[in-house]
Amino acid sequence: MKVLAVYGSTYGQAEAVMHRVAATLQADGHDVQTFRGDALPADLAVDGFDAVIVAASIIVGKYQAYIRSFVRRHAVALRTRPTAFISVSGTSPETLKAWRDAARAYVERFCRETGWEPRWTATFSGALRYQHYGLVTRWIMKLIAGCTGGPTDTSREYEFTDWSAVDRFARDLSNGLGPGAAP
C-alpha cells in the first residue's frame, strides 16, 4: 500500500515514533512517504494514498495546530481509507494508569473535536527534553514532573517511550494494511 505519514513534533519524540512505525511498514513492503505536518508539499494529494497515519505530540494540553488543521482539511479523504492516529504525550511511564487515562482522554477529545474516527489509535509516552526547553518551559515541565512523581533533574533528558509497544503497534498496523485492507 502507498501510505502517507504526517507528524507533528515539537521536541522530536513524536517524529522518532513516526519514523520507527514507517520503517516497520517499509520493511514489510509498504511505500511510505513521511512528512512533517507544517512542511507538507504544496501539491500533496491525500487522495493519492491508500492509507494515512498521523502522529502528534501533546504540548500544553493540545496537539500541534497544524496537525488539527491537516485532519480537518482532509476529513473526507481520511474517512474513505484506512487511517491511524498516534499520540505521544506525557512525562510518565506508560505503565501508570493515570498516564494511560489522560493519554486516552487526549485522543478521544481530538477525535471528537476534529470529527475523525481513525481505525487504529495508539498512545505512547514521550520524553523530557529539559536541555532543549527554554527557561520558562523547563520550569513548567519540572513543576509538572514533580507533581506527578517524575524526574526533576534538569541537567539531563529522560525518555519514557516504550519502544517495544511502538514496534508491536507498527507490526499490527502493517498487518492491518496488508492486502485487501478496506476503509
In short:
The protein has 2 domains: 2-126 and 161-176, Rossmann fold (3-Layer(aba) Sandwich), CATH 3.40.50.360; 129-160, no CATH class.
Question: How are the elements arranged and paired?
Answer:
Elements: E1 2-7, H1 13-27, E2 31-36, E3 51-57, H2 65-73, H3 75-79, E4 83-89, H4 97-114, E5 120-125, E6 127-128, H5 135-147, E7 158-159, H6 163-176
Parallel strand pairs: 1-2, 1-3, 3-4, 4-5
Antiparallel strand pairs: 6-7
Helix pairs in contact: 1-6
β content, as a range? 15-25%
Give the name of the CATH superfamily of the largest domain.
Flavodoxin domain
Along the chain, the helix and strand elements come as EHEEHHEHEEHEH
CATH topology of the largest domain: the name is Rossmann fold
What is the domain total for the residues? 2
Shape: globular
Tally of individual helices: 6
Low-confidence stretches are: none
Rg computed from alpha carbons, rounded to a whole number of angstroms = 16 Å
Give the beta-strand count: 7
